[in-house]
Design brief:
CATH architecture of chain A: Sandwich
Distance between the termini of chain A: 25 Å
Structural class of chain A: mainly beta
Largest interface: A-B, 44 and 44 residues
Number of helices of chain A: 1
Number of domains of chain A: 1
Low-confidence stretches of chain A: none
Radius of gyration of chain A: 17 Å
CATH class of chain A: Mainly Beta
Shape of chain A: globular
Number of strands of chain A: 14
Largest sheet of chain A: 5 strands, antiparallel
CATH topology of chain A: Jelly Rolls
Oligomer: homodimer
Helix content of chain A: under 10%
């Protein structure tokens, strides 16, 4: 592992994540009031873009095995035809690794984020990312992405491996 | 309340709910294995249909006040231009009242369901339904529905009021 470089996750915020996608959270202090005052609504929190190549929006469920730490990362993936949202159903912080859409990223263009347990994310079309990293065995996520014909998953290998050390949740 | 008729909720199943929409749940015993065996995937669990009238798919967050029981119901609503999905982020069973899309329903065409705490639902376009009934104060739901121009909420009044008694979760 002599070539592996340590990457330290930062707390996920909408501002820091903006180049890569949307943060899905009830962040605003002034949600709409609907249903005769019985419901607060935080509206339209993410751009869902799934129509390319006869695609449609799919709602799926993922269940993960806990990611082993420290995590060694040598490759990322992207979905060129559609956005992809992950919303945690488990309340645990989870780890994200992302790089901007475009050419395959260099190792120093990869960013690591840790969520606060309530936040979901929506990757822009083409955002490079690590596949789902579950915080605990059996953690479930709701996924909103594109289904349809055509190849919608590319992979890239990093020029240097990255290592994410265990972190305090 | 002499005219109110009691309606007893039944346990939510995909089969019983099929006339009204999809049940979003990890029901199959044979999910796909993805991400090198680290993730189980239950794919494409609901039909999302939001494009009518220049609409787009919106991901929103709702937070409810607990519904007071017994519940008296005199009206329902529908969204003629798009589907609407509710996925619980709280793990508590919640109540649903629905009637088939089409003309305003009679009171004996209204069905009540109770979820198992892990299930979400996706209403077909035009399915009549009661607005969100939260099981506890502060219960959050993820909503996937249509945003865009045009009137997308109709209301109807029932010919007889219905009453839902408190039920054992």
């Amino acid at each position: 592992m002599t070539d592996a470089l340590t990457l330290v996750p930062q707390a996920l915020t909408a501002e820091a994540f903006a180049p890569f996608g949307d943060v899905i959270e009830a962040a605003s202090d002034s949600p709409e009031q609907i249903n005769y005052g019985n419901t607060k609504k935080w509206a339209d929190l993410a751009l869902v873009d799934t129509a390319d190549g006869d695609g449609h929006t799919a709602i799926s469920m993922f269940e993960g095995l806990a990611t082993r730490m420290p995590l060694r990362v040598e490759a990322l993936e992207r979905h060129p035809l559609g956005t992809q949202a992950f919303i945690p159903l488990h309340g645990e912080p989870f780890l994200l690794l992302v790089a901007r859409a475009g050419d395959a990223p260099k190792h120093d263009e990869v960013h690591a984020f840790i969520t606060n347990g309530q936040q979901g994310v929506n990757y822009h079309k083409g955002t490079w990312h690590h596949y789902l990293m579950a915080p605990v065995d059996g953690a479930r996520f709701l996924i909103i992405d594109r289904a349809g014909p055509g190849g919608n998953c590319d992979f890239c290998t990093l020029d240097h491996a990255l290592v994410i050390e265990p972190f305090v949740k």
